[in-house]
Amino acid sequence: MARYATGKNAYAVSDRSGMRYKYKDMRKEWNGALVGKDEFERKHPQLGPFRKVYDPQSLKEARPDTNNIFNVKAQFPIFNLTTLRHELVPQAEGKVGTVTFGGDVTTPTSATSTGVAATGAVGTVTASGTGTGVNATFTVTVVSTGYGNKYYIDGVQQDTVNLSEGSTYRFDQSDSSNSGHPLRFSTTSNGTHGGGSQYTTGVTTNGTAGSSGAYIQITVAVGAPTLYYYCTNHSGMGGQANTP
Question: Is residue 156 part of a domain?
């Protein structure tokens, strides 16, 4: 019987690189390739073949779930003394009188709704009143930090606020810490301290900052630019007001 060459002088060529290796140093990979021991790679676990997995099959002669299938509505007749007949109890109906929308705490806006029944049919709605329609109020305080005085909006230092177009927002400066720090708006960061000017479109003010009832209010115009709130007397106190 023929014998294969063996021994230290037997050589073979790698199936991967074509390099010559001593036959005794060769390794056979999972795919049958004969390679040098420095080229040997184990089979990657993601390579097949894979075990076949079958989806679970439905039950033979399965029955539907009977829970919550039926929605039972029961009506009981009553004896009507006028018609002397048994009749079903009539369905209850209700109507809405006056509904209050928006407005502020001092001058609410009212609306009268007619034709509203339990069936969901809506008639007409007429709104009236002289309310200011403030959509949100921000509480402004001033806190002295290691970098000077800063505005705090609802307790957050120089918070960035978002103001929607067409909505009205009130910045309440009635806290005594606002004394000497009137808040204003500008299209320039830091307002007049940054070379900008005061923005006045839709802006109204009331009272003196730091006194009871003091506030600055803005109704955001459609297409309004990004605004910045600042102190007219001191630099670096304000922040940004987005108008998406």
Answer: yes
